[in-house]
Design brief:
By secondary structure, the chain is of the alpha/beta class. Helices cover 37% and strands 15% of the residues. The strands form three sheets. Strands 4-5-13-10-11-12 form a six-stranded mixed sheet, with helices on both faces. Strands 8-7-6-9 form a four-stranded parallel sheet, with helices on both faces. The longest helix has 16 residues. It is globular.
Length: 389
């Protein structure tokens, strides 16, 4: 069995098939591309029991990851974060079977390390020497860190309002940092201008390359394995660009196709801040894409994304799993961040706190009955937002 069962890339919009070993960004129609695997080959040669003797990193799932050679893997030991029972908080919120997937424990302190590890590894395998990307902070610092480990150059543009520690991380590992007076969408425009002017950079922006999502999907693979190859009833995910939510959806669909888990899939919940909630607005209209959010602003800076490139995939994941999208206020976010800390001793990031606030809101609204097994994604450590606390 090869290290990776990667087969090809496919466009979820126009169904066009693309060669996986050719460096590419989006489809000719403008849609993000998704990696596809020879699942029959995986099924015939590998069992879920084979994973037990592998190292406890996300690379234990290498057949379902896009890096073809183990020698191209760029790793800092990322993955296999714990599923932490949140019994005290769960009782307080009325959802006693509550678990937290704590991504604050991976390298660089956020789940962004997963996408960076896989995305940088695959980019290096395909010959990339320089990457460029816009970011709200954490993705940029993660990609700059893994680029440095891979011997690659990085150009990172982020808003002035991004967490200060993210700026320090980029500079410390030798990345070129550009600060922008605006939002991530403004940073994206600047990156496009600079890379066109300079040449030689690969665009690693959210969903503009196909492999970040493959790193993020390992959260879904781990959740299933950690639950004894069972799926929870509900997964709540703080949603900006939504790559992690799409990735979890993709991962669980692949596991069902392999026969490693049985359906139905958990209900997927996209959590946004009231100050930037384009997915929630689209969900409430039962739309299949979102409209750009005006004057986006929230303390949960990582989910300040006015218009996600993969919005149609986020909404598809929600609709197909009978999930929902919910917005919470900054006041609710900060209150739940403190409540989680007081009840559980866990210092979650504002984005993770938004997901906990959504648990309480959905329970009070009756959308959650209280008996479900619910997994909340805490996407990073609160320590990265020390200037906000």
């Amino acid at each position: 069995m090869p290290f990776s069962a990667l087969s090809h890339l496919t466009c979820p919009t126009c169904d066009r098939r693309h060669e996986a070993d050719q460096l590419t960004n989006v489809c000719t129609c403008g849609s993000p591309l998704l990696a596809e695997y020879d699942l029959a080959q995986v099924r015939d040669s590998t069992s879920r029991d084979d994973l037990a003797n592998r190292p406890p990193t996300l690379w234990r799932y290498h057949e379902l990851l896009p890096v073809r050679s183990p020698h191209q893997v760029v790793s800092l030991g990322e993955g296999m974060t714990p599923l932490v029972p949140m019994q005290s908080y769960g009782r307080d919120a009325g959802v006693e079977r509550l678990l937290m997937k704590d991504e604050g424990l991976v390298p660089t302190g956020t789940f962004k390390a997963r996408g960076a590890a896989v995305g940088v590894s695959r980019a290096r395998e395909l010959g990339v020497k320089k990457i460029a990307m816009p970011t709200n902070g954490n993705a940029g610092s993660a990609w700059a860190t893994y680029a440095a480990r891979a011997g690659m150059q990085s150009l990172i543009a982020m808003p002035y309002d991004a967490p200060e520690i993210c700026r320090h991380e980029v500079r410390l590992v030798g990345g070129e940092l550009i600060l922008v007076d605006g939002l991530i969408s403004d940073a994206a425009r600047l990156v496009r201008e600079l890379t066109a002017e300079r040449g030689g950079y690969f665009d690693a922006a959210t969903l503009r390359e196909p492999y970040r999502i493959e790193g993020k999907k390992t959260m879904g693979l781990e959740i299933a394995e950690q639950l004894g190859w069972q799926m929870p009833d509900v997964v709540l995910y703080p949603t900006g660009g939504g790559v992690g939510l799409i990735g979890i959806w993709k991962a669980l669909r692949e596991l069902v196709a392999l026969g490693w888990v049985a359906g139905p899939l958990p209900k997927l919940v996209a959590v946004q801040a009231a100050g930037c909630a384009p997915i929630v607005s689209a969900y409430e209209r039962r739309a299949t894409s979102s409209e750009p959010w005006p004057d986006a602003r929230t303390v949960a800076f990582g989910i300040t994304v006015p218009k996600a490139l993969g919005d149609f995939l986020i909404l598809r994941a929600i609709y197909e799993t009978d999930g929902c999208a919910v917005a919470v206020t900054d006041e609710q976010i900060l209150a739940e961040q403190r409540r989680v800390a007081e009840l559980e001793g866990a210092f979650v990031c504002p984005e993770g706190a938004a997901a906990f606030a959504a648990v309480r809101k959905l329970r009070e609204a009756g959308w959650l009955a209280g008996s479900e097994q619910v997994v909340v994604l805490n996407t990073g450590t609160g320590l990265k937002y020390q200037s906000q606390n």
